[in-house]
């Protein structure tokens, strides 16, 4: 198979490229012009196409001669979409890629997000039967829901051969940027965070998510969505695992979420005065509540998805951060 990957240099993209290469596939990636080969892909046998998902011409060049497109490119942010770039990339970019695949009869594996689903009622398991949250207050979640809606519309109206994968909160090694979560691990390791807020989330290794995407290309059913998620932990459970793995004492104080909402105006005011990004914002607080059960049973049955436990992922993440030199005292 010859595969094309948008966002191939990103958190999930570089893991997927490695999985595809290990399976013997030829891989072409789309990356923005002027950046050269991303560090996350250096040394790998990939073909680079420089361009944007917002350019139909660039996407056409990417799709020449490929059998499957993995559309991962997205703007991921907990901040509001003040300049409209999230809407453009996550919705308009998805439309351009999906229409190009439909016109050429190329299979599309589209990356959505479990945050695009309606989570309430929280007492019930989160699974693929939940509706998309088209009116969510998180700009990221809402644009991911809109992007998936476009894909499903093309499946119905133009026969697009598409499968949708919905990753959870990704952890593990090969986090080159590092991601928002990778930076949080470093802050905790260097004891920069004295207290935490109660957060419930699922944790899944990016390598396992990548394997799920690769399986979806050959085993996923057209028009279906698959949750690629992991084990759900509350904040105290997560901190206990990271402390065990890292050997660094973690914060003992975990505040209820209402404290975060009550102190939000002060946090934003302090950030404006200091010129630094806020320690948290409304987007962080809205993403902090998740269902106690997040089911990946469908992906396990149909794709063979088998995520490893968070402890193993965090141990490998620690070794990656150490190899990158980010655990040294100078990084504190």
TrEMBL record:
InterPro entries: Epimerase_deHydtase, NAD(P)-bd_dom_sf, NAD(P)-dependent_oxidoreduct. Signal peptide: none annotated. GO terms for cellular component: cytoplasm. It holds the Pfam family Epimerase. This is NAD-dependent epimerase. Residues 4-226 form the NAD-dependent epimerase/dehydratase domain. It comes from the Bacteria. GO terms for molecular function: aldehyde dehydrogenase (NAD+) activity.
């Amino acid at each position: 198979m010859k595969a094309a990957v948008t966002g191939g240099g990103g958190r999930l993209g570089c893991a997927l490229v490695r999985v595809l290469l290990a399976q013997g596939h030829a891989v072409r990636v789309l990356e923005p012009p002027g950046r050269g080969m991303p560090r996350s892909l250096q040394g790998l046998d990939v073909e680079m196409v420089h361009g944007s998902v917002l350019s139909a011409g660039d996407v056409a060049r990417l799709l020449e001669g490929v059998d499957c497109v993995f559309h991962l490119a997205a703007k991921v942010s907990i901040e509001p979409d003040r300049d409209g770039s999230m809407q453009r990339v996550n919705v308009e970019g998805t439309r351009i890629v999906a229409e190009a695949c439909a016109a050429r009869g190329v299979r599309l594996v589209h990356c959505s997000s479990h945050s695009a689903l309606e989570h309430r009622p929280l007492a019930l398991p989160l699974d693929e039967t939940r509706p998309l949250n088209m009116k969510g207050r998180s700009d990221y979640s809402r644009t991911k829901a809109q992007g998936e809606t476009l894909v499903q519309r093309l499946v119905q109206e133009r026969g697009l051969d598409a499968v949708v994968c919905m990753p959870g909160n990704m952890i593990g090694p090969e986090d080159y940027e590092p991601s928002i979560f990778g930076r949080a691990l470093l802050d905790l390791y260097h004891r920069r965070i004295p207290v935490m807020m109660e957060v419930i989330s699922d944790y899944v290794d990016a390598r396992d998510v990548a394997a799920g995407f690769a399986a979806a290309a050959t085993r996923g059913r057209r028009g279906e969505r698959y949750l690629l998620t992991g084990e759900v932990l509350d904040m105290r459970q997560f901190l206990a695992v990271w402390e065990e793995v890292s050997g660094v004492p973690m914060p003992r104080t975990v505040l209820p979420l209402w404290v975060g909402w009550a102190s939000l105006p002060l946090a934003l005011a302090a950030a404006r005065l200091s010129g630094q990004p806020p320690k948290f914002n409304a987007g962080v607080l809205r993403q902090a509540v998740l269902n106690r059960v997040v089911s990946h049973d469908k992906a396990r049955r149909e794709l063979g998805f088998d995520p490893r436990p968070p402890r193993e992922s965090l141990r490998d993440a620690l070794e990656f951060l150490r190899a990158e030199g980010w655990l040294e005292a100078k990084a504190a």
